[in-house]
Design goal:
There is one protein chain. This protein has helices at 2-11, 16-38, 40-48, 64-82, 84-134, 137-141, 145-187, 189-209, 213-236, 238-243, 247-273, 275-300, 307-348, 409-415, 439-444, 460-464, 473-482, 486-491, 509-523, 539-553, 588-594, 597-604; strands at 369-377, 386-394, 398-403, 424-429, 432-433, 446-450, 527-531, 557-561, 573-578, 581-586. A hairpin with a 2-residue loop joins strand 9 and strand 10. The longest helix is centred in the first third of the chain and has 51 residues, at 84-134. By secondary structure, the protein is an alpha/beta fold. It starts with a helix and ends with a helix. It contains 22 helices and ten strands.
Protein backbone atom coordinates (compact mmCIF):
# COMPACT_ATOMS: atom_id res chain seq x y z
CA UNK A 1 0.00 0.00 0.00
CA UNK A 2 2.89 2.36 0.77
CA UNK A 3 4.25 1.91 -2.76
CA UNK A 4 0.85 2.80 -4.16
CA UNK A 5 0.61 5.97 -2.04
CA UNK A 6 4.10 7.02 -3.19
CA UNK A 7 3.11 6.65 -6.85
CA UNK A 8 0.02 8.77 -6.30
CA UNK A 9 2.05 11.41 -4.42
CA UNK A 10 4.48 11.64 -7.35
CA UNK A 11 2.06 11.98 -10.23
CA UNK A 12 -1.32 13.16 -8.94
CA UNK A 13 -0.45 16.66 -7.52
CA UNK A 14 -0.68 18.53 -10.89
CA UNK A 15 -4.21 17.15 -11.23
CA UNK A 16 -5.36 17.51 -7.60
CA UNK A 17 -8.31 19.79 -8.41
CA UNK A 18 -9.56 17.42 -11.09
CA UNK A 19 -9.18 14.57 -8.61
CA UNK A 20 -11.16 16.49 -5.98
CA UNK A 21 -13.94 17.12 -8.49
CA UNK A 22 -13.86 13.46 -9.51
CA UNK A 23 -14.23 12.36 -5.87
CA UNK A 24 -17.13 14.81 -5.37
CA UNK A 25 -18.87 13.48 -8.48
CA UNK A 26 -18.35 9.93 -7.23
CA UNK A 27 -20.04 10.80 -3.94
CA UNK A 28 -22.99 12.32 -5.80
CA UNK A 29 -23.08 9.32 -8.16
CA UNK A 30 -23.15 6.92 -5.21
CA UNK A 31 -25.66 9.04 -3.25
CA UNK A 32 -28.21 9.19 -6.05
CA UNK A 33 -27.65 5.49 -6.72
CA UNK A 34 -28.55 4.67 -3.13
CA UNK A 35 -31.53 7.04 -3.22
CA UNK A 36 -32.94 5.41 -6.37
CA UNK A 37 -32.82 2.01 -4.65
CA UNK A 38 -34.11 3.24 -1.29
CA UNK A 39 -37.22 4.34 -3.16
CA UNK A 40 -37.99 0.62 -3.54
CA UNK A 41 -39.00 0.37 0.11
CA UNK A 42 -42.15 2.58 -0.04
CA UNK A 43 -43.08 1.12 -3.43
CA UNK A 44 -42.85 -2.40 -2.08
CA UNK A 45 -44.70 -1.32 1.08
CA UNK A 46 -47.54 0.02 -1.05
CA UNK A 47 -47.62 -3.10 -3.19
CA UNK A 48 -47.61 -5.48 -0.21
CA UNK A 49 -49.90 -3.33 1.93
CA UNK A 50 -47.39 -3.34 4.77
CA UNK A 51 -46.66 0.39 4.75
CA UNK A 52 -48.89 2.29 7.22
CA UNK A 53 -50.13 5.73 6.19
CA UNK A 54 -48.41 8.80 7.62
CA UNK A 55 -51.06 11.50 7.93
CA UNK A 56 -49.19 14.10 9.98
CA UNK A 57 -46.46 16.19 8.38
CA UNK A 58 -43.25 16.05 10.41
CA UNK A 59 -40.86 18.96 10.93
CA UNK A 60 -37.94 18.91 8.49
CA UNK A 61 -34.58 17.95 10.01
CA UNK A 62 -31.25 16.70 8.72
CA UNK A 63 -31.71 13.14 9.89
CA UNK A 64 -32.89 9.90 8.35
CA UNK A 65 -36.04 9.54 10.46
CA UNK A 66 -37.40 13.02 9.61
CA UNK A 67 -36.67 12.62 5.89
CA UNK A 68 -38.32 9.20 5.91
CA UNK A 69 -41.44 10.52 7.65
CA UNK A 70 -41.72 13.41 5.18
CA UNK A 71 -41.35 11.04 2.22
CA UNK A 72 -44.04 8.70 3.56
CA UNK A 73 -46.32 11.67 4.35
CA UNK A 74 -46.21 12.89 0.74
CA UNK A 75 -46.63 9.34 -0.56
CA UNK A 76 -49.70 8.97 1.68
CA UNK A 77 -51.13 12.27 0.39
CA UNK A 78 -50.63 11.21 -3.23
CA UNK A 79 -52.09 7.74 -2.57
CA UNK A 80 -55.18 9.15 -0.87
CA UNK A 81 -55.61 11.79 -3.57
CA UNK A 82 -54.83 9.87 -6.75
CA UNK A 83 -54.73 6.19 -5.81
CA UNK A 84 -52.02 3.53 -5.45
CA UNK A 85 -51.27 3.40 -9.18
CA UNK A 86 -50.43 7.11 -9.36
CA UNK A 87 -48.33 6.74 -6.24
CA UNK A 88 -46.27 4.06 -7.94
CA UNK A 89 -45.78 6.37 -10.93
CA UNK A 90 -44.68 9.20 -8.64
CA UNK A 91 -42.18 7.05 -6.77
CA UNK A 92 -40.97 5.56 -10.06
CA UNK A 93 -40.50 9.08 -11.47
CA UNK A 94 -38.36 10.04 -8.48
CA UNK A 95 -36.31 6.88 -9.00
CA UNK A 96 -35.82 7.75 -12.68
CA UNK A 97 -34.66 11.28 -11.85
CA UNK A 98 -32.24 9.87 -9.27
CA UNK A 99 -30.96 7.30 -11.79
CA UNK A 100 -30.45 10.04 -14.42
CA UNK A 101 -28.49 12.17 -11.96
CA UNK A 102 -26.51 9.10 -10.94
CA UNK A 103 -25.53 8.48 -14.58
CA UNK A 104 -24.68 12.16 -15.13
CA UNK A 105 -22.34 12.36 -12.16
CA UNK A 106 -20.79 9.03 -13.12
CA UNK A 107 -19.97 10.54 -16.51
CA UNK A 108 -18.56 13.71 -14.92
CA UNK A 109 -16.28 11.63 -12.69
CA UNK A 110 -15.07 9.67 -15.73
CA UNK A 111 -14.64 12.96 -17.64
CA UNK A 112 -12.20 14.25 -15.01
CA UNK A 113 -10.41 10.89 -14.91
CA UNK A 114 -9.68 11.06 -18.64
CA UNK A 115 -7.61 14.21 -18.15
CA UNK A 116 -5.82 12.71 -15.16
CA UNK A 117 -5.05 9.46 -17.00
CA UNK A 118 -3.69 10.99 -20.20
CA UNK A 119 -1.86 13.74 -18.35
CA UNK A 120 -0.04 11.22 -16.17
CA UNK A 121 1.05 9.20 -19.21
CA UNK A 122 2.34 12.37 -20.87
CA UNK A 123 4.19 13.43 -17.71
CA UNK A 124 5.88 10.07 -17.19
CA UNK A 125 7.05 9.83 -20.80
CA UNK A 126 8.27 13.42 -20.66
CA UNK A 127 10.26 12.71 -17.49
CA UNK A 128 11.82 9.55 -18.93
CA UNK A 129 12.75 11.26 -22.20
CA UNK A 130 14.27 14.25 -20.41
CA UNK A 131 16.18 11.93 -18.07
CA UNK A 132 17.55 10.00 -21.06
CA UNK A 133 18.81 13.27 -22.55
CA UNK A 134 20.46 14.24 -19.26
CA UNK A 135 22.06 10.91 -18.37
CA UNK A 136 25.73 10.55 -19.36
CA UNK A 137 26.97 8.12 -22.00
CA UNK A 138 28.34 5.58 -19.47
CA UNK A 139 24.76 4.80 -18.38
CA UNK A 140 23.80 3.64 -21.86
CA UNK A 141 26.78 1.34 -22.19
CA UNK A 142 25.16 -0.68 -19.39
CA UNK A 143 21.61 -0.66 -20.80
CA UNK A 144 19.96 -2.15 -23.89
CA UNK A 145 18.27 0.39 -26.16
CA UNK A 146 15.34 -1.96 -26.71
CA UNK A 147 14.81 -2.28 -22.97
CA UNK A 148 14.76 1.51 -22.58
CA UNK A 149 12.16 1.72 -25.38
CA UNK A 150 10.15 -0.99 -23.61
CA UNK A 151 10.12 1.09 -20.43
CA UNK A 152 8.92 4.19 -22.30
CA UNK A 153 6.08 2.29 -23.99
CA UNK A 154 4.79 -0.88 -22.35
CA UNK A 155 5.85 -0.03 -18.80
CA UNK A 156 4.35 3.45 -18.99
CA UNK A 157 1.05 1.92 -20.12
CA UNK A 158 1.16 -0.49 -17.18
CA UNK A 159 1.75 2.38 -14.78
CA UNK A 160 -1.10 4.30 -16.40
CA UNK A 161 -3.43 1.36 -15.78
CA UNK A 162 -2.06 1.05 -12.27
CA UNK A 163 -2.55 4.72 -11.45
CA UNK A 164 -6.11 4.75 -12.74
CA UNK A 165 -6.88 1.48 -10.96
CA UNK A 166 -5.41 3.07 -7.85
CA UNK A 167 -7.69 6.09 -8.23
CA UNK A 168 -10.61 3.76 -8.78
CA UNK A 169 -9.56 1.62 -5.85
CA UNK A 170 -8.99 4.51 -3.46
CA UNK A 171 -11.45 7.18 -4.56
CA UNK A 172 -14.26 5.61 -6.58
CA UNK A 173 -15.11 2.07 -5.50
CA UNK A 174 -14.64 2.77 -1.76
CA UNK A 175 -16.85 5.86 -2.08
CA UNK A 176 -19.63 3.79 -3.64
CA UNK A 177 -19.16 1.05 -1.05
CA UNK A 178 -19.08 3.56 1.83
CA UNK A 179 -22.22 5.43 0.77
CA UNK A 180 -24.03 2.18 0.02
CA UNK A 181 -23.01 0.65 3.35
CA UNK A 182 -24.34 3.79 5.06
CA UNK A 183 -27.71 3.21 3.40
CA UNK A 184 -27.59 -0.47 4.35
CA UNK A 185 -26.68 0.47 7.92
CA UNK A 186 -29.74 2.71 8.17
CA UNK A 187 -31.95 -0.14 6.96
CA UNK A 188 -30.47 -2.79 9.29
CA UNK A 189 -27.39 -2.28 11.40
CA UNK A 190 -27.40 -5.95 12.51
CA UNK A 191 -27.24 -7.27 8.95
CA UNK A 192 -24.66 -4.67 7.90
CA UNK A 193 -22.43 -5.51 10.85
CA UNK A 194 -22.56 -9.13 9.73
CA UNK A 195 -21.54 -8.07 6.19
CA UNK A 196 -18.61 -6.06 7.53
CA UNK A 197 -17.30 -9.15 9.29
CA UNK A 198 -17.46 -11.26 6.11
CA UNK A 199 -15.92 -8.81 3.57
CA UNK A 200 -12.40 -8.61 5.13
CA UNK A 201 -12.18 -12.40 5.03
CA UNK A 202 -12.91 -12.33 1.29
CA UNK A 203 -10.33 -9.57 0.80
CA UNK A 204 -7.69 -11.63 2.60
CA UNK A 205 -8.32 -14.61 0.30
CA UNK A 206 -7.97 -12.38 -2.79
CA UNK A 207 -4.72 -10.92 -1.45
CA UNK A 208 -3.23 -14.38 -0.93
CA UNK A 209 -3.97 -15.37 -4.54
CA UNK A 210 -2.33 -12.21 -5.94
CA UNK A 211 0.69 -12.29 -3.64
CA UNK A 212 3.38 -13.07 -6.26
CA UNK A 213 1.81 -11.16 -9.14
CA UNK A 214 4.23 -8.20 -8.88
CA UNK A 215 7.31 -10.44 -9.15
CA UNK A 216 5.94 -12.35 -12.14
CA UNK A 217 4.93 -9.10 -13.83
CA UNK A 218 8.43 -7.60 -13.50
CA UNK A 219 9.93 -10.75 -15.00
CA UNK A 220 7.56 -10.41 -17.97
CA UNK A 221 8.41 -6.74 -18.49
CA UNK A 222 12.14 -7.48 -18.32
CA UNK A 223 11.68 -10.20 -20.92
CA UNK A 224 9.79 -7.82 -23.20
CA UNK A 225 12.73 -5.42 -22.92
CA UNK A 226 15.06 -8.20 -24.11
CA UNK A 227 12.76 -8.97 -27.05
CA UNK A 228 12.64 -5.32 -28.12
CA UNK A 229 16.44 -5.16 -27.86
CA UNK A 230 16.76 -8.15 -30.19
CA UNK A 231 14.35 -6.52 -32.66
CA UNK A 232 16.31 -3.25 -32.54
CA UNK A 233 19.65 -5.04 -33.03
CA UNK A 234 18.21 -7.11 -35.89
CA UNK A 235 16.91 -4.04 -37.73
CA UNK A 236 20.24 -2.26 -37.26
CA UNK A 237 22.32 -5.26 -38.34
CA UNK A 238 20.09 -6.72 -41.06
CA UNK A 239 22.77 -6.30 -43.72
CA UNK A 240 25.30 -8.32 -41.71
CA UNK A 241 22.73 -10.97 -40.78
CA UNK A 242 21.96 -11.60 -44.42
CA UNK A 243 25.60 -11.41 -45.51
CA UNK A 244 26.60 -14.13 -43.03
CA UNK A 245 23.48 -16.28 -43.59
CA UNK A 246 22.72 -15.87 -39.90
CA UNK A 247 18.94 -15.66 -40.24
CA UNK A 248 18.49 -19.04 -38.57
CA UNK A 249 20.72 -18.16 -35.62
CA UNK A 250 19.02 -14.82 -35.02
CA UNK A 251 15.61 -16.45 -35.42
CA UNK A 252 16.48 -19.13 -32.86
CA UNK A 253 17.58 -16.50 -30.36
CA UNK A 254 14.39 -14.49 -30.85
CA UNK A 255 12.16 -17.57 -30.69
CA UNK A 256 13.81 -18.70 -27.46
CA UNK A 257 13.20 -15.37 -25.73
CA UNK A 258 9.70 -15.16 -27.21
CA UNK A 259 8.85 -18.61 -25.87
CA UNK A 260 10.08 -17.69 -22.40
CA UNK A 261 7.95 -14.56 -22.55
CA UNK A 262 4.93 -16.68 -23.54
CA UNK A 263 5.40 -18.87 -20.46
CA UNK A 264 5.74 -15.86 -18.15
CA UNK A 265 2.66 -14.22 -19.66
CA UNK A 266 0.73 -17.50 -19.27
CA UNK A 267 1.49 -17.51 -15.55
CA UNK A 268 0.62 -13.83 -15.26
CA UNK A 269 -2.63 -14.02 -17.22
CA UNK A 270 -3.73 -17.16 -15.34
CA UNK A 271 -3.40 -15.24 -12.08
CA UNK A 272 -5.24 -12.21 -13.48
CA UNK A 273 -7.97 -14.34 -15.08
CA UNK A 274 -8.60 -15.90 -11.69
CA UNK A 275 -9.66 -12.54 -10.27
CA UNK A 276 -13.11 -12.32 -11.88
CA UNK A 277 -14.43 -15.87 -11.30
CA UNK A 278 -13.00 -15.91 -7.79
CA UNK A 279 -14.64 -12.60 -6.86
CA UNK A 280 -17.86 -13.86 -8.52
CA UNK A 281 -17.83 -17.01 -6.43
CA UNK A 282 -16.95 -15.20 -3.20
CA UNK A 283 -19.70 -12.66 -3.93
CA UNK A 284 -22.23 -15.47 -4.37
CA UNK A 285 -21.17 -16.95 -1.04
CA UNK A 286 -21.73 -13.59 0.64
CA UNK A 287 -25.18 -13.19 -0.98
CA UNK A 288 -26.25 -16.68 0.17
CA UNK A 289 -25.03 -16.00 3.69
CA UNK A 290 -26.81 -12.62 3.78
CA UNK A 291 -30.07 -14.17 2.54
CA UNK A 292 -29.82 -16.77 5.27
CA UNK A 293 -28.96 -14.30 8.02
CA UNK A 294 -31.50 -11.65 6.88
CA UNK A 295 -34.21 -14.26 6.55
CA UNK A 296 -33.42 -15.45 10.06
CA UNK A 297 -33.79 -11.90 11.39
CA UNK A 298 -37.19 -11.41 9.70
CA UNK A 299 -38.58 -14.83 10.60
CA UNK A 300 -37.33 -14.53 14.16
CA UNK A 301 -38.69 -10.98 14.53
CA UNK A 302 -35.26 -9.73 15.53
CA UNK A 303 -34.72 -6.01 14.98
CA UNK A 304 -36.95 -3.83 12.80
CA UNK A 305 -36.11 -5.38 9.42
CA UNK A 306 -39.19 -5.87 7.22
CA UNK A 307 -39.57 -7.91 4.04
CA UNK A 308 -39.74 -4.83 1.73
CA UNK A 309 -36.72 -3.29 3.50
CA UNK A 310 -34.84 -6.57 3.14
CA UNK A 311 -35.49 -6.65 -0.62
CA UNK A 312 -34.23 -3.05 -0.87
CA UNK A 313 -31.24 -4.09 1.27
CA UNK A 314 -30.37 -6.91 -1.14
CA UNK A 315 -30.67 -4.48 -4.07
CA UNK A 316 -28.29 -2.10 -2.29
CA UNK A 317 -25.84 -4.88 -1.58
CA UNK A 318 -25.79 -5.79 -5.26
CA UNK A 319 -24.64 -2.24 -6.04
CA UNK A 320 -21.43 -2.83 -4.06
CA UNK A 321 -20.71 -6.15 -5.78
CA UNK A 322 -19.26 -4.49 -8.91
CA UNK A 323 -17.17 -1.97 -6.95
CA UNK A 324 -15.88 -4.86 -4.85
CA UNK A 325 -14.99 -6.75 -8.04
CA UNK A 326 -13.32 -3.58 -9.32
CA UNK A 327 -11.24 -3.49 -6.16
CA UNK A 328 -10.11 -7.04 -6.87
CA UNK A 329 -9.23 -6.28 -10.50
CA UNK A 330 -7.55 -3.02 -9.45
CA UNK A 331 -5.42 -4.90 -6.91
CA UNK A 332 -4.05 -7.19 -9.60
CA UNK A 333 -3.49 -4.26 -11.97
CA UNK A 334 -1.72 -2.26 -9.27
CA UNK A 335 0.70 -5.14 -8.67
CA UNK A 336 1.64 -5.10 -12.36
CA UNK A 337 1.91 -1.32 -12.33
CA UNK A 338 4.20 -1.32 -9.31
CA UNK A 339 6.54 -3.74 -11.09
CA UNK A 340 6.54 -1.47 -14.16
CA UNK A 341 7.19 1.60 -11.98
CA UNK A 342 10.24 -0.08 -10.49
CA UNK A 343 11.66 -0.54 -14.00
CA UNK A 344 10.87 3.08 -14.91
CA UNK A 345 12.50 4.26 -11.70
CA UNK A 346 15.69 2.46 -12.72
CA UNK A 347 15.94 5.29 -15.26
CA UNK A 348 14.27 8.17 -13.40
CA UNK A 349 16.29 7.61 -10.22
CA UNK A 350 19.57 6.75 -11.94
CA UNK A 351 22.39 8.82 -10.49
CA UNK A 352 24.54 10.59 -13.05
CA UNK A 353 28.25 9.89 -12.73
CA UNK A 354 28.98 13.24 -14.41
CA UNK A 355 27.67 16.13 -12.29
CA UNK A 356 27.30 19.70 -13.47
CA UNK A 357 28.72 22.37 -11.19
CA UNK A 358 26.13 23.98 -8.93
CA UNK A 359 27.72 27.41 -9.52
CA UNK A 360 29.32 27.15 -12.96
CA UNK A 361 31.92 29.57 -14.25
CA UNK A 362 30.69 31.48 -17.30
CA UNK A 363 32.87 31.26 -20.39
CA UNK A 364 31.72 32.47 -23.80
CA UNK A 365 34.95 32.56 -25.81
CA UNK A 366 38.05 30.47 -26.25
CA UNK A 367 41.10 32.68 -25.90
CA UNK A 368 44.31 30.77 -25.18
CA UNK A 369 44.62 26.98 -24.92
CA UNK A 370 43.16 23.61 -24.02
CA UNK A 371 45.37 21.75 -21.58
CA UNK A 372 45.38 18.16 -20.29
CA UNK A 373 47.16 17.97 -16.92
CA UNK A 374 48.18 14.56 -15.54
CA UNK A 375 44.97 13.01 -16.87
CA UNK A 376 44.19 9.40 -15.99
CA UNK A 377 41.08 7.53 -17.04
CA UNK A 378 39.67 4.00 -17.07
CA UNK A 379 36.27 2.54 -17.91
CA UNK A 380 36.79 -0.24 -15.36
CA UNK A 381 39.03 -0.54 -12.33
CA UNK A 382 41.15 -3.24 -13.90
CA UNK A 383 42.45 -1.48 -16.99
CA UNK A 384 43.68 2.10 -17.43
CA UNK A 385 42.81 3.62 -20.83
CA UNK A 386 44.76 6.89 -20.41
CA UNK A 387 47.84 7.18 -18.21
CA UNK A 388 49.27 10.47 -16.98
CA UNK A 389 48.45 12.48 -20.13
CA UNK A 390 49.91 15.99 -20.38
CA UNK A 391 49.26 18.05 -23.49
CA UNK A 392 48.74 21.73 -24.31
CA UNK A 393 46.73 22.63 -27.43
CA UNK A 394 47.14 26.37 -28.21
CA UNK A 395 44.38 28.33 -29.86
CA UNK A 396 44.37 28.11 -33.65
CA UNK A 397 46.58 25.01 -33.82
CA UNK A 398 45.76 21.60 -35.29
CA UNK A 399 46.76 18.64 -33.14
CA UNK A 400 46.55 15.14 -34.62
CA UNK A 401 46.26 11.95 -32.58
CA UNK A 402 47.53 8.70 -34.11
CA UNK A 403 48.15 5.20 -32.88
CA UNK A 404 46.79 1.69 -32.92
CA UNK A 405 43.11 0.96 -32.22
CA UNK A 406 42.45 0.89 -28.50
CA UNK A 407 45.39 3.13 -27.64
CA UNK A 408 43.12 5.81 -26.12
CA UNK A 409 42.72 8.40 -28.91
CA UNK A 410 38.90 8.50 -29.01
CA UNK A 411 38.73 8.44 -25.21
CA UNK A 412 41.10 11.43 -25.17
CA UNK A 413 38.68 13.54 -27.23
CA UNK A 414 35.55 12.21 -25.45
CA UNK A 415 36.87 13.63 -22.17
CA UNK A 416 36.99 17.18 -23.52
CA UNK A 417 33.17 17.70 -23.88
CA UNK A 418 32.71 15.66 -20.66
CA UNK A 419 31.06 12.66 -22.22
CA UNK A 420 33.15 10.98 -19.52
CA UNK A 421 35.00 12.49 -16.54
CA UNK A 422 38.67 12.01 -15.74
CA UNK A 423 39.55 9.74 -12.83
CA UNK A 424 42.38 12.04 -11.80
CA UNK A 425 44.10 15.11 -13.15
CA UNK A 426 42.28 17.93 -14.94
CA UNK A 427 41.39 19.33 -18.36
CA UNK A 428 41.32 23.11 -18.60
CA UNK A 429 40.14 25.66 -21.15
CA UNK A 430 41.90 29.00 -20.72
CA UNK A 431 42.99 27.82 -17.29
CA UNK A 432 39.45 26.93 -16.10
CA UNK A 433 38.78 23.30 -15.17
CA UNK A 434 36.02 22.07 -17.50
CA UNK A 435 34.24 20.56 -14.47
CA UNK A 436 33.60 24.13 -13.30
CA UNK A 437 31.74 24.99 -16.54
CA UNK A 438 28.11 24.30 -17.37
CA UNK A 439 27.55 21.55 -19.93
CA UNK A 440 25.96 24.06 -22.29
CA UNK A 441 28.83 26.58 -22.18
CA UNK A 442 31.45 23.84 -22.51
CA UNK A 443 29.86 22.06 -25.46
CA UNK A 444 28.92 25.32 -27.14
CA UNK A 445 32.66 25.86 -27.70
CA UNK A 446 32.99 22.60 -29.65
CA UNK A 447 31.90 20.92 -32.84
CA UNK A 448 32.09 17.20 -33.56
CA UNK A 449 32.56 15.26 -36.78
CA UNK A 450 32.69 11.52 -36.14
CA UNK A 451 33.58 8.46 -38.18
CA UNK A 452 29.92 7.44 -38.23
CA UNK A 453 27.93 10.62 -38.95
CA UNK A 454 24.79 10.86 -36.85
CA UNK A 455 21.92 12.15 -38.98
CA UNK A 456 18.18 12.21 -38.38
CA UNK A 457 15.19 11.17 -40.46
CA UNK A 458 14.46 14.73 -41.48
CA UNK A 459 15.23 17.14 -44.32
CA UNK A 460 18.78 17.92 -45.40
CA UNK A 461 18.31 21.53 -44.33
CA UNK A 462 17.10 20.60 -40.84
CA UNK A 463 20.02 18.19 -40.39
CA UNK A 464 22.52 20.91 -41.25
CA UNK A 465 20.78 23.41 -38.96
CA UNK A 466 20.47 20.87 -36.11
CA UNK A 467 21.30 22.53 -32.78
CA UNK A 468 21.65 26.00 -34.31
CA UNK A 469 18.78 28.35 -33.56
CA UNK A 470 17.51 30.93 -36.06
CA UNK A 471 19.66 29.64 -38.93
CA UNK A 472 18.60 31.21 -42.23
CA UNK A 473 18.44 29.39 -45.57
CA UNK A 474 21.43 31.45 -46.73
CA UNK A 475 23.44 30.31 -43.69
CA UNK A 476 22.57 26.67 -44.41
CA UNK A 477 23.53 26.95 -48.09
CA UNK A 478 26.83 28.68 -47.22
CA UNK A 479 27.70 25.90 -44.73
CA UNK A 480 26.88 23.26 -47.35
CA UNK A 481 29.13 24.96 -49.91
CA UNK A 482 32.03 25.11 -47.46
CA UNK A 483 31.50 21.36 -46.83
CA UNK A 484 31.45 20.54 -50.60
CA UNK A 485 27.85 19.35 -50.16
CA UNK A 486 25.83 21.94 -52.09
CA UNK A 487 26.17 20.27 -55.50
CA UNK A 488 24.93 16.82 -54.49
CA UNK A 489 22.17 18.41 -52.37
CA UNK A 490 20.82 20.26 -55.39
CA UNK A 491 20.81 17.00 -57.35
CA UNK A 492 18.44 15.35 -54.86
CA UNK A 493 14.70 15.27 -55.46
CA UNK A 494 13.74 18.26 -53.31
CA UNK A 495 17.09 19.87 -52.64
CA UNK A 496 17.43 21.06 -49.06
CA UNK A 497 13.89 19.82 -48.33
CA UNK A 498 14.74 16.20 -49.22
CA UNK A 499 14.06 13.65 -46.46
CA UNK A 500 17.23 11.56 -46.03
CA UNK A 501 15.72 8.52 -44.25
CA UNK A 502 16.65 6.77 -41.02
CA UNK A 503 20.22 7.73 -40.06
CA UNK A 504 20.60 9.25 -43.53
CA UNK A 505 20.17 5.88 -45.23
CA UNK A 506 19.26 7.44 -48.61
CA UNK A 507 22.73 9.03 -48.91
CA UNK A 508 26.19 7.59 -49.49
CA UNK A 509 28.83 7.56 -46.76
CA UNK A 510 30.66 10.52 -48.22
CA UNK A 511 27.46 12.52 -48.59
CA UNK A 512 26.47 11.82 -45.00
CA UNK A 513 29.89 12.87 -43.80
CA UNK A 514 29.77 16.14 -45.73
CA UNK A 515 26.37 16.95 -44.19
CA UNK A 516 27.93 16.29 -40.79
CA UNK A 517 30.73 18.71 -41.66
CA UNK A 518 28.23 21.30 -42.92
CA UNK A 519 26.45 21.04 -39.56
CA UNK A 520 29.74 21.78 -37.78
CA UNK A 521 30.47 24.67 -40.17
CA UNK A 522 27.09 26.25 -39.41
CA UNK A 523 27.66 25.97 -35.66
CA UNK A 524 31.05 27.68 -36.18
CA UNK A 525 32.66 26.61 -32.88
CA UNK A 526 36.20 27.72 -31.90
CA UNK A 527 37.25 24.12 -31.11
CA UNK A 528 36.70 21.28 -33.58
CA UNK A 529 36.94 17.56 -32.76
CA UNK A 530 37.36 15.25 -35.77
CA UNK A 531 37.28 11.56 -34.85
CA UNK A 532 38.44 9.47 -37.84
CA UNK A 533 36.17 11.48 -40.12
CA UNK A 534 37.54 9.98 -43.36
CA UNK A 535 38.51 6.45 -42.34
CA UNK A 536 35.38 4.75 -43.76
CA UNK A 537 35.33 6.50 -47.15
CA UNK A 538 36.46 5.58 -50.64
CA UNK A 539 39.27 7.59 -52.29
CA UNK A 540 37.03 10.00 -54.22
CA UNK A 541 34.74 10.67 -51.26
CA UNK A 542 37.76 11.02 -48.99
CA UNK A 543 39.21 13.77 -51.19
CA UNK A 544 35.92 15.71 -51.17
CA UNK A 545 35.52 15.25 -47.42
CA UNK A 546 39.17 16.11 -46.73
CA UNK A 547 38.82 19.33 -48.72
CA UNK A 548 35.72 20.11 -46.66
CA UNK A 549 37.63 19.37 -43.46
CA UNK A 550 40.48 21.64 -44.53
CA UNK A 551 37.93 24.43 -45.03
CA UNK A 552 36.41 23.65 -41.65
CA UNK A 553 39.73 23.76 -39.77
CA UNK A 554 40.92 27.09 -41.16
CA UNK A 555 41.61 29.55 -38.33
CA UNK A 556 40.24 27.05 -35.82
CA UNK A 557 41.63 24.95 -32.98
CA UNK A 558 41.31 21.34 -34.15
CA UNK A 559 41.88 17.96 -32.53
CA UNK A 560 42.02 15.26 -35.21
CA UNK A 561 41.94 11.52 -34.56
CA UNK A 562 43.25 9.79 -37.68
CA UNK A 563 44.13 6.33 -38.95
CA UNK A 564 45.05 7.52 -42.41
CA UNK A 565 48.24 9.42 -41.74
CA UNK A 566 48.12 11.11 -45.16
CA UNK A 567 45.28 13.30 -43.84
CA UNK A 568 47.27 14.85 -40.98
CA UNK A 569 50.77 15.45 -42.38
CA UNK A 570 50.22 19.24 -42.19
CA UNK A 571 49.14 19.23 -38.54
CA UNK A 572 50.97 21.61 -36.23
CA UNK A 573 51.54 18.79 -33.75
CA UNK A 574 51.16 15.02 -34.04
CA UNK A 575 50.84 12.96 -30.86
CA UNK A 576 51.43 9.21 -31.03
CA UNK A 577 49.42 7.12 -28.55
CA UNK A 578 50.49 3.67 -27.40
CA UNK A 579 48.67 1.73 -24.67
CA UNK A 580 47.13 4.85 -23.18
CA UNK A 581 50.27 7.00 -23.19
CA UNK A 582 51.60 9.72 -25.47
CA UNK A 583 54.95 8.25 -26.50
CA UNK A 584 55.93 10.68 -29.29
CA UNK A 585 55.11 14.29 -30.16
CA UNK A 586 56.25 16.50 -33.03
CA UNK A 587 55.59 17.53 -36.60
CA UNK A 588 55.37 15.04 -39.44
CA UNK A 589 59.00 15.56 -40.46
CA UNK A 590 60.30 15.50 -36.88
CA UNK A 591 58.59 12.21 -36.12
CA UNK A 592 59.85 10.61 -39.33
CA UNK A 593 63.40 11.53 -38.40
CA UNK A 594 63.07 9.88 -34.98
CA UNK A 595 62.35 6.56 -36.69
CA UNK A 596 60.01 5.56 -33.88
CA UNK A 597 56.45 4.29 -33.79
CA UNK A 598 55.14 7.03 -36.10
CA UNK A 599 57.77 6.21 -38.72
CA UNK A 600 56.78 2.56 -38.50
CA UNK A 601 53.10 3.41 -38.93
CA UNK A 602 53.91 5.51 -42.01
CA UNK A 603 55.83 2.69 -43.63
CA UNK A 604 52.99 0.24 -42.93
CA UNK A 605 50.63 2.57 -44.83
CA UNK A 606 53.12 3.07 -47.69
CA UNK A 607 53.01 6.78 -46.96
Amino acid sequence: MRDLIRILQRFIPPYKYRLIRSILYNFLHAGFGVFSLVMLTPVLGILFGTQPDVTEKAEFAWNMSACKDLLYYYITVIKNSFGAGSTLLFVGGLALVAAALKGFFNYMAAYESVYIRNGIVRDIRKKIFLKILLLPLPFFSEERKGDIISRMTGDVQEVEASIMSSIEMLFQSPVIILVTLTGMLLISWELTLFVLVILPVMGYIIGKVGKNLKQISRAGQNKMGVILSIIEETLSGLRIIKAFNAEHKVSERFNGENEQNRRIQNRLQRRRSLAHPMSEFLGTIVIVVILWFGGTLILGGIGNLTAPAFIAYIALFYTIVNPAKNLTTAYYSVQKGLAAMERIDDILKAQSSIIESANPVTINQFERAVEYKNVNFSYTENRAVLKDINLCIPKGKTVALVGQSGSGKSTFVDLLPRFYDVNSGAITIDGVDIRQLSFHDLRELMGNVNQDPILFNDTIGNNIAFGVENATQEDIIHAAKVANAHEFIMETENGYDTIIGDRGGKLSGGQRQRLSIARAVLKNPPIMILDEATSALDTESEKLVQDALDNLMKNRTSIVVAHRLSTIKNADLICVFNQGEIVECGTHEELLQRKGIYNKLCKMQNF
